[in-house]
Amino acid sequence: MGMKILVCVKQVPDLERIVVKSGAHGIATLDPFSRFDMNRFDEFAVEQAVRIKESLKEVRIDVITVGPTQAAQVLKRAMGMGSDEGIHLLTATDTDPGPEAVAAWIAEFAYTGEYDLVLCGSMSEDHMNGQVGPMAAARMDLPYATQVMGMTLDRDLKDVTIEREIEGGARELVRLTLPALLALQPGINRPRYPSLSNLLRANQKVFKTIPTEGLVPVMAKVHCMGFRLPTRVRASQVIEGSAPEKAAKLAALLKAKALI
Questions:
Q1: Is the pTM of this model over 0.90?
Q2: Which of 208, 154, 106 is nearest to 1 (CA)?
């Protein structure tokens, strides 16, 4: 028996090499040596899909991303890991459209794709909203689970039993009927490096590109007012008095700050 899996991935900037700009559009102005990579949380979703493909017959993995022209690079990496096809929902600008729009566009495409399983990372490295997966599941009317640390497909491929992380470090077991959407936590597996043969195949692949202007318009419910670096403040306090007095004052200060 086979499956059809959709994996949602996002391209994010190298957060070690960004220059924050003022204003509400875009997270950063990148320096000339910056690069973009696949969101590391999504790598676990791609790896999990590939492992399912290796354990079952007739499994097809589609990978979808939303973003400007350069975002298609993450589709190549996903194919290098073992995915089959890539879908690029092309935005006209590099401005982040927000989780509401991204979820709506993914759901619009996936709704007609007859997917048995939709996988995504628990959040993105840049904005860390953790909202796209649950919002997309709601739009597709699918059962879903977040913070998934383990999953086991039933033999008949009609249900999936998942282990998810909850508050206080505890875990719970949940059984969902397929089709379903799962947002995976880091640690569920160990993502592989893309193989050279798969990367060469991906470099010659023509991905399915769908301009988002032709998809359902979505009104953003959260508006970014702007970005700024935190102000650096170096405050010092001089403790005066004799040695015993200084020791007593220092101890009182540390206790007030809950450091001892």
A1: no
A2: 154
Residue 144 backbone phi and psi in degrees, to 5: -150, 165
d(CA 255, CA 196): 57
> Would you say 222 and 103 are in contact if contact means Cβ atoms under 8 Å apart?
no
Whether residue 194 has a cis bond before it, omega within 30° of 0: no
Residues across the chain: 260
CA 6 to chain centre: 14
Residue keyed to tokens 């589709």: 75
pLDDT tens by residue, 146-201: 999 999 999 889 999 999 988 887 889 999 999 999 999 999 999 999 889 888 98
Distance (Å, whole) CA 201 – CA 172: 40
Spatial distance between the Cα atoms of 237 and 228, rounded to a whole number of angstroms: 28
Token pair 């996936």 in the structure block, residue: 110
As given in the structure block, the two tokens for residue 2 are 């086979």
**Which band of pLDDT confidence, cut at 50, 70 and 90, is reported for residue 29?**
low
Token pair listed for 13: 């900037």
Domains by residue range for the chain, with CATH: 3-214 (3.40.50.620)
Q: Please, are residues 7 and 45 in contact by the beta-carbon 8 Å criterion?
A: yes
Q: Region of 187 please: left (phi>0), alpha (psi -120 to 50) or beta.
A: left
Interhelix angle for 73-81 vs 196-203, to 10°? 140
CA distance 245 to 142: 66
Please state, as a whole number, how many other Cβ atoms lie within 10 Å of the Cβ of residue 142.
21
CA angle centred on 207, ends 203 and 213, rounded to 5°: 140
Show the DSSP H helices in the chain as ranges.
40-55, 73-81, 99-111, 132-140, 196-203, 243-256
